[in-house]
Amino acid sequence: MKILRRLLVYLSPYRLHILGAVLCGGVSALMTAAHAWLIKPALDRLFIERQPAMLVWIPAAICVVALLKGLFEYAHLYLIRRVGIRVIEGIQNQLYRHILLLPIGYHQRQETGSLISHVIYDTHLIEAAFSTIIKDLIQQTITIVCLAAVLVYQNTMLAGMTLLGIPIFIWPLMRYGKRLRRIAHGAQEKAGNLTHLLHETFSGIRVVKAFAQEACESRRMADCVASYYRRIMRTAALSDAARSLIEVMASLSIASVIWLGGHQVFSGAMTPGEFFSFMAAALMMYGPIKNLSTSGHVLQQAMAAAERIFATLEMPNEPQHDQGALAPATLSGRVEIRQVCFAYHPGQPVLSEISLAAQPGEIIALVGHSGAGKSTLINLILRFFEPDSGDILFDGIPYRHIKLSTLRRHIGVVSQEVVLFDQTIRWNLAYGYPEASEAQIQEAAEAAYADGFIQKMPHGYDTVIEKGGLSLSGGERQRLAIARALLKNPPLLILDEATSALDTESEHIVRRAIMNLVKNRTTFVIAHRLSTIQQATRIAVFDHGRLVEIGRHDALLQQGGTYHRIYNLQFRCGQRDTSQEPLQAPLYEAEPVIP
Predict the structure, then answer these.
(1) Domain assignment of residue 273, yes or no
(2) 165, 249 contact by CB (below 8 A)
(3) Which domain holds residue 302?
(4) Tens of pLDDT along 190-230?
């Protein structure tokens, strides 16, 4: 009932629509009862008393009743569908917004397919619940009441015997309800697994084909589908068992009515018209009762979906955690990291006592073996996670005191894996600064050396990027990401392996674009290729979650410590030592913009 009350809250904005649906459903139910009642005069006056006038009035009355029933039934269904669609639209939007605002840790734990199933499949089950509540639980109940009135009107004794059987019909709903909800909950989880498998396979189709694993993926799919449909069959088995049980009990009830009612007709206590009118009402009542059984099962499935959705909506999101009240219009880019410690899991520290400061315009390179803590530190700067201890300050302000949205608006990120949306190039470039003018967009593209290839595309800046930019080269995608960061114009910039996956020619162009990007900005660079960060203001060397060295390239080499070992290991493995050579396009030297 708690879940049901929460669901009913979503109906409150549509009270008038619901009232209209209930009224239309009530009229439709009355017309159903009228059909049953008309059988008595049709038999008694037309066939037994042989009144010729009834040849006109009875068919006319049946046609009018049928027309009214059809019109009000249509209006009833239309209003229900309208309310259901509006409600599901609201729930989907609320759920999607909430999931977007949940911490990054939640998204790392959840499978993509499960989230997609959550937003689409679970919410549509709830739509079925709303239709069930309004259409079946209300209309069918009204229909049963109206038909019961016809039964009582025709024969009170038979009506009492018939109506006493209704609680027996309701018993299967109560008996199997909770069990059905548990099974439905499992089926929805299996649906999420199935969606995730499809998303994973189709996203990685190049790897599947490259390793000739189509047969393996087919087997995985077959196992997942079989597991899902086993759950569906268990749900169907329970539902069908309840329906069959109701059908058997209804047949026994009808048989009893025929036996007793037949005796009353033979004895003259009932006319044939009364008997057949009674029988018609009893038979018509069977349909709504059976529908209520089905509706109960649909409602249980919706309750399972609602439990999952409400559990997600109850999770605290980032704005709820955010205690920041300051929203400075500008930040200079001065960052100070003080004694920061962090662990993803208790007792397994990833960062220990990290202290580091960056002044506006400085370029700080983060270096270390995989798992040393570089990316984790960047995640803390972006406030994807909170430090276990210590603090991070922006312009001397603890970043917990700055509104999260304000903080992230002042940070730009260019990573190795560029994410582009299936929108126009213009839309993608202005993603972080949607109010940008056409001139600003083009200027940013020119500074990123992207304007040239954009102009050659079929529709220029209005060309739609399809499938995340698979038709673009790696260098072109990186230049679009750089242009996007330039347009955002953040005082703090994070470069995460921005050139590591590019060929030499593409890397040279991208590095020239990065030169324009890092000017007058505080920049943190994660790099494994040491040749790309030798011109950095300072290089911070991480080892097992600790900051073990910090300084310029030459000074760190002379120390003979961790950086020296990493450097020697890299160049011993085949990379040319460029430490004493001028770079053809130094990553961090200013260079004039070349459109």
Answers:
(1) yes
(2) yes
(3) 2-314
(4) 777 888 788 778 777 777 877 788 888 888 888 888 888 88
